[in-house]
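Exam revision sheet. Question 4 asks you to relate a sequence to its structure. Input first:
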Amino acid sequence: MDKTKKIEQVTIITGGQYGSEGKGEIAATVGLEANDRLSGHKGFDHVIRTGGPNAGHTVTLPGKVEGKTSIVFRHLPASFSTYMMPCAYWLGPGALVEPGLLVEELEMVGKVLGSVPIINIDPEAVVVGEEHKAAEETADLNARTGSTREGIGAARADHIWRQAETWRDWFEHGFGDDRDDVIFNHTRLASVAENVHGRVLIEATQGYGLSLSYSGLYPQTTSADLVPTAILAAAGIGHTQFESPLHTIAVCRTYPIRVAGNSGPLPGEVDWVTLNRRSGGAAPFEGEKTTVTGKTRRIGEWDWVMFQRMVRDVRPSEIALTFLDYLFPSLQGKQGWGSTTPSPPIPPIRRRRSWRRLRGRRGAR
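Answer key, structure tokens:
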């Protein structure tokens, strides 16, 4: 590693609620804006995705491509999308990789976007196998916690017991039919610690409200924590390794969601028929479907208590608010506010006093 190359600045994009906040769209937008060099911006040198394939990031395509209007990334960083940023793409040492699914995703990206990036995978990333999915089925995790049963928790448990297969093991020896030329043509075994420098974008999965130890909602959580220190560790970057202050973007949606089933409390839960009527049709009558399982999501009112807790633990630099058209139906389909598009009216916020208290305490611990 060239000792003169340092990590200058790190930006984290993370969920501020229970996942499915629209992080993929935000990651694509942030990547596009950062690489708009005509405007004087310096682009990212490296993009690292954390987490595993139990979470999908969806990005809207500019028009219909190969019959698709959007693309779902379950392994690859969503900021690749249609913009194909000129940087290095990574799965960090805390990532979990399902080889067969990675092959399918690389092939899908090549077909839809016409180009496949080289993905650097840290040798310490953990391989997810069918035995991990079977273990979660046997443990009945879905009934107890609302788990997607994609094998992520079981793979992490094997890693703790030091019996999981790492990406180094798999890449060097391979196993079964999953060892595919696609992986060897489009991935590289490389260490984040030895190669990452400059400006770094980290795409985290899921959301703060699913944190194992921080959310206060155990056991209806995921199998990891989703706060900046944990996200940095999963990406392979120490919190003292970069020069500029950490920049964190917490993505929140106007109506938070949780996955179907016994997935935990959701204050102010509403049904999709009611929200469809309230939003003037912007919210789908039949409900949103989860990216990975395809089940109908649960949806609820904005939760100030969870929001304040998230701000306390995550300390975001910015809040990206999504699904505004659920509050303002006139915004449906719009990409932004220009000179010909009037700004939406300010919505009535029932707990303005709580919001003022939150702002006053922002610097306190």
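Marking note for examiners. The longest strand covers residues 7-15.
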